[in-house]
User: Which sequence fits this backbone?
């Protein structure tokens, strides 16, 4: 089937002049018509779009890029990462990769959807609803930007859509969890209940765990996530889903953590999460460069994977490889990673089909709550995919590890040695081939 789609696309492209082809592939920048909805510095917010005229599927993507939580950290961010706070230097076009790619070879199931990329310029984990005033230095309008983009898309064909997939990575993944129900309610309230709203959150499932080394909350990278969010939610005027707010009155900051907000959501959400997320380790003050990792850190890292696995236990649709990495769905290699022999695009396709089947099943039963009658998953379709081997990069399909200081590629054997585990040496002691020992370790033996 995929091969057939490639042939169709090649035929279609051959009918276009070459110059039109490239332009057609890119997403083009549109600034919001409502100029009161802005980035941090008051410049207009916007989105990139590549329309696909025959398609009734829309993929709306929220960009990631950390956050700031007070005047000091936001001033520092404005100096060093201005494009995440201002639209003044945004390029006119963007090329989609991974799930945003228009190439069926790189994106077998979503290449032909209407693609929308919303750049992150609100520094508030897509939660804020606070405009810039004479008294405030910055606007924080992440949730308002999403709402306004959806309003504009309704004039471009979203009103006839069957599916809207709200996707995002890192801070954008948190944004998906915080906004997916808002978007569903917005479309229903405006008279479009037929659009099925779903979420795809990548690398946004953070834990409010205890840091390996406690530090003062001076900057974004080392401040404990709980402390940063508590300060941020007040500074941003952050909004959380109503059902989560009611579950955590007085502690609304908990709704920024996946395992707290997920159970309260009504919309279906697929989670993608590395078990050893580099951003989580950074927030927990685990440094994986320079000095070899000592035993206390190694135990902390393994325990993190164990904790994460436990919090994901009841998530029905997810993809969680035991790799040390951050973000996946927009990577060009996103098709190569597998869990239990299944790739992420395949798992997402299975999820897509299972949701369609549930809708058909429920229509025939005369009810519209997709929780009531669950259609059984198709044969060979697995949705709950989580690695069981116990340490970073024990999955042989993990992406290449690079030393963060030198940028050099590291083999798994080199990486484990850096982590204080000398595979070569132990294999020699056991009279074994290092590759065989690695295979046994990968299998959790």
Assistant:
């Amino acid at each position: 089937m995929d091969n057939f789609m490639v042939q169709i696309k090649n035929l279609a492209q051959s009918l276009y002049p070459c110059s039109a082809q490239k332009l057609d592939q890119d997403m083009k920048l549109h600034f919001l018509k409502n100029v009161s909805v802005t980035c941090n510095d008051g410049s207009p917010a916007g989105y990139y779009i590549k329309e696909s005229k025959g398609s009734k599927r829309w993929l709306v993507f929220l960009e990631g890029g950390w956050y700031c939580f007070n005047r000091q950290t936001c001033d520092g961010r404005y100096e060093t990462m201005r494009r995440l706070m201002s639209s003044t230097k945004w390029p006119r076009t963007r090329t989609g990769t991974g799930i945003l790619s228009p190439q069926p070879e790189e994106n077998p199931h979503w290449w032909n959807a209407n693609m929308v990329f919303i750049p992150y310029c609100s520094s508030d984990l897509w939660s804020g609803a606070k405009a810039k005033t004479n008294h405030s230095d910055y606007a924080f309008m992440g949730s308002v930007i999403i709402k306004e983009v959806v309003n504009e898309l309704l004039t471009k064909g979203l009103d006839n859509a069957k599916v809207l997939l709200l996707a995002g990575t890192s801070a954008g993944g948190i944004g998906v969890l915080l906004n997916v129900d808002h978007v569903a309610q917005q479309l229903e309230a405006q008279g479009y209940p037929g659009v099925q709203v779903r979420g795809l959150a990548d690398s946004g499932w953070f834990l409010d765990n205890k840091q390996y080394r406690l530090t003062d909350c001076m900057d974004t990278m080392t401040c404990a996530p709980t402390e940063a969010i508590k300060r941020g939610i007040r500074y941003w005027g952050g909004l959380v889903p109503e059902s989560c707010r009611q579950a955590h009155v007085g502690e609304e900051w908990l709704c920024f953590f996946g395992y707290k907000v997920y159970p309260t959501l009504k919309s279906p959400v697929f989670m993608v999460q590395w078990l050893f997320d580099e951003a989580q380790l950074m927030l927990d003050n685990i440094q994986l460069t320079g000095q070899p990792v000592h035993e206390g850190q190694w135990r902390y890292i393994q325990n993190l994977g164990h904790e994460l696995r436990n919090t994901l236990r009841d998530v029905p649709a997810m993809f969680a490889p035991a790799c040390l990495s951050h973000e996946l769905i927009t990577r060009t290699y996103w098709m190569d990673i597998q869990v239990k022999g299944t790739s992420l695009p395949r798992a997402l396709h299975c999820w897509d089909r299972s949701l369609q089947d549930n809708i058909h099943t429920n229509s025939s039963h005369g009810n519209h709550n997709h929780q009531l009658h669950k259609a059984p998953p198709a044969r060979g379709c697995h949705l709950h995919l989580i690695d069981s081997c116990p340490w970073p990069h024990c999955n042989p399909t993990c992406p290449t590890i690079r030393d963060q200081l030198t940028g050099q590629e590291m083999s798994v054997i080199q990486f484990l040695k850096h982590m204080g585990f000398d595979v070569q040496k132990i294999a020699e002691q056991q009279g074994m081939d290092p590759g065989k020992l690695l295979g046994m370790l990968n299998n959790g033996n």
